[in-house]
Amino acid sequence: MTPTESSRGVGGDADTLLAGFAHSVRRHPDRTAVVSDERVLTYAELDELAGAVAAEIQARTDEPGARIGIFLPRSADLVLAAIAVIKAGHSYIPLDPGNPRARLERILEVAEPALVITTGDLADGLPPETAVLRLHHTRPPGLHYSVPSVDVSTCAYIIFTSGTTGEPKGVRISHGNVLHLLRSTDSLFACDEHDVWSMFHSFAFDFAVWEMWGALLHGGCVVVVPERVVQDPAAFRRLLRDRRVTVLSQTPTAFYQLVTEEQRHDDRLSVRRVVFGGEALRFATLAPWIAKYGDEAVELINMYGITETTVHASYRRIRETDLRQSASLIGVPLPNSFIRLVDDQLDPVRPGHVGEIVVAGPGVGLGYHARPDLTRQRFLDLTDDDGQSVRGYRSGDLARLRPDGDLEYLGRADSQVKIRGFRIELGEVETALVRQPAVRAAAVAVRTLPTGDEALVGYVVPTEDGVPDQRRLRDDLSLVLPGHMVPATFVVLDALPLTGNGKLDRAMLPDPVLGVDAGRAPRSLPEELLCQLFAQALGRPTVAPDDNFFVLGGHSLSAVRLTSRIRAVLGLEVSIQELFESPTVAALTPRITATTDRPPLTRCAHGDEVPLSPAQRHRWSLRQETGAAPADQVSSALHLTGRVDVAALDAALTDVMRRHAVLRTRFSEHHGTPVQRIVDSESIQPPLVVEPVDAEKLAESVTAVAREPFDLRQDPAVRARLFLVDENRSVLVLVLHPIAADEWSLPPLLRDLAEAYGARLAGRPPRWQPMPVRYADHVVWQRDLLGDADDPDSVAGRQLAFWKGYLSGIPDELALPADRPRPADPRSRVDLVPVDIDADLHVRLARLADASGTTVDMVLKAALAALLTGHGAGTDLPLAVPVPGRTEAALERLVGLLGNTLVTRVDTAGDPTFAELLVRVRTADLAAYAHQDLPFARLAERLDPVRSTGRHPLAQVMVGTRPTVAPDFALPGLGVAVESIGDDTAAFDLSYRFEKRRDADGQPQGVCGTLEYRVDRFRRETVARLAVGLVHRLEQVVANPAVRLSQFDDPEAG
User: In the chain, how many domains are there?
Assistant: First the structure.
């Protein structure tokens, strides 16, 4: 490249940025120079405004070459301020408003700027002694601008990067360094005044130098990307389209998000070239982009560089054939520069051998500000191949020269790393960690998460005061470190691993175990889906509803990934701002499901007599009609191994009854209206009955207790019988009347029983937090929530209107593959066939659910619908789904009749693929779950479906999860195996109930399920074939989700 050729594209024959910008102003005064939001400045306007600010800077600085801080938000003013500082003859220091105050203050202390250009709003965030120039766009009267004397060696800017000791390092870059960067790439890029450059990155990140000066010295336009757009791939793509950006610079991590967004669009962008830098690029991730654009129309260029060598030092064009490359190839040095690979003695290594990268040539910077020792250590005087003296820089990066001349990047030689484009000294993070009071020693390493993201992991050895709290560590570190330098997770060690010579052995630091954080289960389908999406974005097996996204290691890019998935799966727009304001699933759910107008559920004043809830009134009516208690009592048997302390157990059961008022409630009628009366907690009788039993009669005795009816007027709503088989073996049977509790009440009841038993063994009452509400409070709240169903504006009225439309036209009865005609009795004796899914299939079902934005429950439900359609049930399938009804936080640990039944609709018409069927199921379920407050009994009463004495109204098939006791449930000092005692009669023709099992780390361990059936309608062998067919379909869909329903084959048919 000749000097004439080089000067034609970049600033004419200018040797400074000042002269280069002036050249662009002369040639293109009326062309757009900078765009930010709705603000547009031409070159002439930018020059005039910058001149005014430059005059004010010169008036407030005494000596030439002063350092001027720029502390501004992303806007056109950033560009204006940088030009103004250059026009004043000084060097600018980018200061990121997003940095912690402590880091900002330290940079200012080291840099000692003569002025900091800022705005009135941001000025309050600066130390009070800072000299501030508040940016305005008019020149104060009496100020005159004079052209400064600068040359190629004058410092243009100072960018501060991470340092090992916690001290930020200021890298000084000259006018000549930047001009070399742009002229050395001119022949490679052929940019001109028609190009539009995006300024995507932080102004304090050296990529911004390339983006801003590359545009301005070519006479092009620079589009400053607002912070809110940077964090939103959809908004960023709209900006690229609307502003017709042609030159796009991206860190690979940021571009991966854009590639995902690009796949949602058919139109093509105006981008002509994409420049990658800042971190290692995985070529394979570019496949979707190349599939759309090819590798010719849009140039993809991978560039290696360092702040100290002025952004970029190498160049490699990426072609479609590179997608198969696993190596990180960074190409060849830029023209007029060279890269040498050296050993520890700075001697060149042979081709193919690993060496440290030394970059030499005109791009190497001036050194570190106020750090002559470090400058001497890293900046070298070398000779080039012609024997000429040249300046070099030791990068600390490792590479090897391949036979084809390509350089292969191999990572860092020291403790400095790059994550999401940010260069981080691990030592600086370690220094901040060991300053925490609870940490005795610390190390930091980079690990790859299941998402493919690289993340910092902190390893801490605690002091004698105990294990440090991870949340507290993150919060404290966030006060002194930028967000990108705070570890995503922490591992507590007894000691740091050391090498034989006593140094830290980073290779032996263990991978973090991203297991299940203790927390409650999701209360609703939207919560469950959001938990799944949070976990995917974070690379964790599960996330609890109350886990903080950012505390678990979320960052701006993973937040973008999360919001994109929410949009794709739930069809809802969530801004990054909303995620920051509501960083937990529990907080985010009401914002996106419009449930914030619900009345608060709190304790309220009521007498001893309380009306029944709608569900309780339905149970009472059944009791009045049948003359006995309903058959579906909630029963559980706890098989105990070890010696039971009967007195402690009796006291513990009494404690539980005192805690849950509904268990000490009597039911009766008052003037023809059923009411419930709460018995005073001090008046209750201990419920435990102890009875010896022979082992051979144990099963019979357990069943008899579970089936024994209640006298609701006299008996408490809970029955407890302890069968003593021998001194080390016993069975505790707990039975709850269904008017007082549902099956979802058993897990919280057992948790409370275990806690109370442990306390009584210790000779004290349990130290519970008071229950936030009682069941009677829920009855009053539900009445206020629902309102009058005849009022179309009430919750009940709106939900009733929804259900009338949702269930309009459903079949009166499904054509199930029954063996016998329907009898007149609506309830029948029930039997069941096991449907067990092993851990391997469970893992694959979970992967399918993740990939499709659904849940395992939805996959199982869709498979059942496909099975029924294949056996002649039709293509419009109303399926009953049991839901816990615990939609409020205060209900999470409440025992009571809160559950509900939803009738969801599955449409299998048109022979869809299974993947398409999953989308239909998700859409229908989300709509149904959003209207789950209306009790089923009131819905059935209002809809008044065609009734038959022998079938359940609205739906004859039920499908859903079965509530489970926590895997770690135990009674102190006893072995416990919990057995659910099922009902021996059935209201539904078929019920598929299942329990998903996971290990301590949240990994799938199988699904234990049953197909329960009415024996007066089905033979066992028929249902057994259905069970086999269901599992077979599941195996088919995990292998090929694109299989159509007509393509399923049944093993029994073959």
Answer: 5
Q: Which residues contact 372 (CB under 8 A, 6 or more apart)?
A: none
Q: Which of 875, 893, 882 has the alpha carbon at shortest distance from 857?
A: 882
pLDDT at 565: 79
For the chain, how are helix, strand and coil distributed in percent, rounded to 5? Answer: 35, 25, 40
Pairing of strands 422-425, 416-419: antiparallel
Tell me the CATH number at 871.
3.30.559.30
State the residue range of the domain holding 762.
Answer: 609-777
Give all strands of the β-sheet with 454-462 in edge-to-edge order. 439-448, 454-462, 489-492
Task: Say whether both 703 and 763 belong to one domain.
Answer: yes
Tokens 């008996």 -> residue: 715
- Phi and psi (nearest 5°) for 307? -55, -40
Query: What is the Cα–Cα distance from 827 to 6, expressed in whole angstroms?
Result: 90
Asked whether the beta carbons of 272 and 293 are under 8 A apart, the reply is no
Q: Is 798 exposed, middle or buried (0-12, 13-18, 19+ CB in 10 A)?
A: middle
Beta strand pairing call for 985-986 and 975-981: unpaired
The pLDDT assigned to 156 comes to: 98
| 391 strand-pairing partners | 381
Pairing state between β 155-161 and 132-134: unpaired
Of the spans 67-81, 229-243, 387-401, which averages the highest pLDDT? 67-81
Q: What is the CATH number of the domain that holds 112?
A: 3.40.50.12780
* Lowest-confidence segment of 163-167, 336-340, 1024-1028 by average pLDDT: 163-167
Residues 6+ apart with CB under 8 A from 627: none
Q: Which residue has the tokens 């895997």?
A: 967
Q: Residue 390 and residue 1047: Cα distance in Å, rounded?
A: 71
- Structure tokens that stand for 708 in this block: 């024994």
Residue 203 pLDDT: 93
- Choose one of 448, 480, 508: the last residue of a domain: 508
Residue 352 belongs to a domain: no
Q: Is 271 exposed, middle or buried (CB count within 10 Å of its CB: 0-12, 13-18, 19+)?
A: buried
Q: Helix, strand, or coil here: 770?
A: coil
CA angle 928, 741, 698 (to 5 degrees): 120
Tell me if 160 sits within 8 A of 204, measured CB to CB. yes
Q: What are the pLDDT digits (tens) for 741-793?
A: 999 999 999 999 999 999 999 999 998 888 889 999 999 999 989 999 889 98
Q: Are 529 and 432 found together in one domain? A: no
Alpha-carbon distance 225 to 220, whole Å?
16
Number of Cβ within 10 Å of residue 944's Cβ equals 8
- pLDDT at residue 878, rounded to an integer: 96
Going by DSSP bridges, is the β-strand pair 990-998/957-961 parallel, antiparallel, or unpaired?
A: parallel
* Residue 531, domain member (yes or no): yes
The answer on 496 and 539 residing in a single domain is no
Q: How far apart are CA 263 and CA 299, in angstroms?
A: 18
**Do 63 and 14 belong to one domain?**
yes
pLDDT digits (tens, 9 = 90+) for 927-978: 898 888 999 988 988 887 766 666 778 899 999 988 877 766 789 999 999 8
The three-class DSSP label of residue 132 is strand
583, 697: one domain: no
Q: Is the pLDDT of residue 329 over 90?
A: yes
Q: Which of 866, 781, 780, 828 is nearest to 1014 (CA)?
A: 828
Write a three-state SS string for 681-749.
CCCCCCCEEEEECCHHHHHHHHHHHHHCCCCCCCCCCEEEEEEEEECCEEEEEEEECCCCCCHHHHHHH
Give the pLDDT confidence score for residue 808 in this predicted structure: 92
**DSSP 8-state symbol, 791:** S
Angle subtended by helix axes 207-217 and 17-27, to nearest 10: 40
Task: Please check the confidence at residue 631 and state whether its pLDDT lies above 80.
Answer: no
Q: State in Å, rounded, how far the first CA of the chain is from the last one.
A: 74
Asked whether the beta carbons of 211 and 221 are under 8 A apart, the reply is no
Residue 226 has φ and ψ, to the nearest 5°, of -60, 155
567 — phi, psi (to 5°)? -65, -45
| Total-model pTM | 0.59
